Amino acid sequence: MIRRLVLDVLKPHKPSVVEVSEALSHLDGVEGVNIIINEIDQQVENAKVILAGIALDFAEIQAKLEEFGATIHSVDEVAAGKRIVEEVKTPQDSSARM
């Protein structure tokens, strides 16, 4: 069962992030939605969409986003299981970014 998803999403300006977040929050299994706009272009917005819940249905979330004309560019994080395991920093993380 998926408990958290972090998605890189490209969406049109309309509907607004308020409308999209409200619609996503009403899906079964979704307990919280956070949408952060990273970039605004003339026609579209690039957004980080973070969803949390007990049992997220990726197909249903993708279908709802597509209903609003949005596309998922990438799935940047998935947390599944009985509890969410947070990312931890390791020495390799800083040396890999040099």
Number of helices: 3
* N-to-C CA distance: 35 Å
The average pLDDT is 94
Main sheet, how many strands, which sense, barrel?
A: 4 strands, antiparallel
The radius of gyration is 15 Å
What portion of residues belong to β-strands? Answer: over 45%
Structural class, by secondary structure, is alpha+beta
Give me the count of strands.
4
Q: Globular, elongated, flat, extended or rod-shaped: what is the shape?
A: flat
Helix amount: 25-40%
Order of helices and strands: EHEEHEH
Q: pLDDT below 50 for ≥5 consecutive residues: which ranges?
A: none
As laid out across the biggest beta sheet, the strand order is 2-3-1-4
SSE layout and pairing:
Layout: E1 2-12, H1 17-25, E2 30-40, E3 44-56, H2 58-67, E4 71-80, H3 91-96
Antiparallel strand pairs: 1-3, 1-4, 2-3
Question: What would the keywords be for this entry?
Answer:
98 residues; alpha+beta; four-stranded antiparallel β-sheet; flat
Can you tell me about this structure?
The protein has 98 residues and is of the alpha+beta class. 26% of the residues lie in helices and 46% in strands. It has three helices and four strands. The protein has a four-stranded antiparallel beta sheet with strand order 2-3-1-4, covered by helices on one side. The chain is flat and about 40 Å long. The termini are far apart.
